[in-house]
């Protein structure tokens, strides 16, 4: 703003140190050019040819005299093309006291030449013919006040926080040229003294600005270095557990912060800016390279997982139609354990692969369930048949004597033969019905044993030996039953055990 105001003010005063100007009204500077044109046009319109000759003679003399002081004639000045300077603010209106104080430093001679006192000497600064001496003096006094106003404006501008060193240099240079030998009437030494003070103040302000910039640059470097250190810390923390997407978002945020800092902070010296950018860029580059390497390893691992799961699916599909329920169930359990151990291949791929594997499993296990439901129905029918046989067996007891026991034994043997041919019953009912049949057998056996002991002691010894063998076989069967996982085989072993328990009961 100061530069603009100073520049605009400069258009008010002509650059020539010594000037010849037309008459003007003292109220405003804007009426000067109009009065110059009016005075000249009036003189041209009223002048006679003879007068023109005299005027030319006078003008020639004036030019001769003016050439010594480099001042143009009034006619030459009037014929100058109208200037169109940059729009300037409205000229200041000065008090009569200020104007009179300035006028005290000047005078106008009889020829219209204007002089200004400068110390002990005086200097001719221009010519203002055709007007009163007071009017001429007033014009140059106002020009002095204009120049002083520009110095005052610069003094105010120096206090602004947004002034730049270049603006100070340009303003001091411009004001120095204007105050060197100004074509104004006023206290020139005071004007120059004020300029020197402003010049010193400007230099001090430049030093202040330089120090402020130095501090601002140091702060900007510190802030940008903090951004760099955050980026380097992120790179240093990369490892197997790194969340790459989250870390990429953090790097993107730091880059946005870097750009915002460039736009809003003071400009950093190129060397420092380049060094910091190199560090920041290196951190980003290392992150991108390691993330790319991680992505390649992840893709390779996923491919390996996909291949392993494809092999599991292929194996599952090859056994899904098996009716060997026990062995195939075991195989499917092993395949499931392998599936869990190979890891993940990505959500989309895993979902597709799992759907295929699950379909193969469902085929087998649904078929097994259907078979079990069918078997359960037949086992319930077998249970009903065995319940009927139990009624017949339990009707044989109690027996009164050896003859009744012998007859009951024969009937029970027939019942047991039918029992074995019926087949399996539901597991939860097997022990119950087997126990009831065994109870009938034990009661008959008790009567038989009592009669046997009365007749043959040696036979008792043989029976005891046979009973010992049966007990050993029963113990062996118990171990096999406990170790067997196949339901069908286990049921068969339990049936064999039940038969030998009946034998044992019979020989006791």
UniProtKB/TrEMBL annotation:
Biased composition, class Polar residues, residue ranges: 1-10, 21-38
Name of this protein: DNA repair ATPase
Region annotation (Disordered) ranges: 1-92
Bias-annotated ranges (Low complexity): 39-57
Coiled-coil segments: none
Organism, as annotated: Bifidobacterium bohemicum DSM 22767
InterPro entries found in the cross-reference section: DUF349
